[in-house]
Structures
1.
Amino acid sequence: MASYSVSVSSGNSFNVARAAAPKPSVNQEKTVVAENLSELADVSVSDLPGSDNYVLTYDATLAKFVLVPADNVLSYSVADSDLPDDFITQLDTDLDDKIDLDGGTF
């Protein structure tokens, strides 16, 4: 720290000192973006490359997204014995005249 002596024409004298300059600090925030599902904290997947025919669903008990076999999705949805009406209507339209049920003779 440098010290300077300053005098004014009126005869008064002052000592002036420059305080140390504050050291600048830099805070850098880094946002990390996941490139893969397995890098996310709330996703629990194992063997993702070998998981064809799986659907990513949220498991509330684990508080994470998990992979569920696609074949099980419809089974899980009818666990309460109630499918959405628009789903049933779409099935009726899609399967109309494609399934021939023979009731036999009486």
2.
Amino acid sequence: MPEPRFASTEKSPVLPSHRVPAHLARRFHQICLGVTAEILLHEDLTPMLWGVMAAVLEQPGSGQRQLANSIGVDAVNFGQMIDFLEQKGLIKRQIDPDDRRARQLYVTRRGTDLRRRLRPSLLSAQERLLAPLSKTERSALLDMLVRVIEANDSYARPGNGRRKPRRTSDSRPADQAARR
């Protein structure tokens, strides 16, 4: 399957003031998502949905809440993604025999086949992404990213860094509005 190229060939140099971890991580994440999204586009999947499916495949039989926590996604969004993947026939939920209120997650045969089919293209895209680095540098980069992420995992909460919703004057409780 030929891989589409939507990205501009124009380079965006990194400004000196942006040579800080937060900005570089955001740009790197943006690039990684773009590379992955090009491949998943034809399957009506996003990189996040693919990541959820991969997590279920790596930890079959896990519960939704457990998996959501392990990949840093809030439980409500995770549940919606599982609903979508289940509707596409890629994931199935089964009642947990130890807790009938809980559901265990499994990738279906269709999901496994899709992963088997797309995995070579996705791995190739990752290789192209890291092509500017030598093999030793690639390994070092991944090792360092893992080390930084594991050392700072307490900051990896769902929704962390997002703005809190602003309250408008109309959204205040009536008793507060009356006091003004």
3.
Amino acid sequence: MTPMISTLRLRPFDLHDIEAFTEAVNDSLDTLLPWMSWAHQDYQPHEAESWIRFTHLQRALKEAEEFAIVDAENRLLGGAGFRFAKKPGEFCALGYWVRRDAQCQGVATQAVKLLLDFGFARPDVQTIELLAVENNYASRRVAEKSGGRFIDYRYGVIILDSGPVNAAIYHFQRPCLQ
């Protein structure tokens, strides 16, 4: 049985993460390439820097919060993001990726829990959505283990390099106070 990574936290990306982010992407291509259209062979530090600077802009515009998933030693284990609804009737959404050598250790499930806590700390957020490619069974398991309720499939809301695909839609509802 693979050990669980017991202590992790989410923190904003900073420019000191460029090297670790680049390394994590390049070391994880076999598990990122099927699902993440931004990942590619020979991912470069300037691309990581551009992404990190973009996350700062998203935060300043209050469009999204993107976080580094780090362990107790501040080792970058992946990324986790929360997108705010832009207009009434839209849902906030979350997403994540985990570096290959930290997969199957509970990292994604813990990161989703932290993202849900972050999202539901906002009183206006009632429902948070998670989209996973239909045959990305690992991400779908994380959604289900985290308490997500499967809603339906929708074609075309996720577009991979190969084109539009079916997405499994999961919803998380604000916990009721007892």
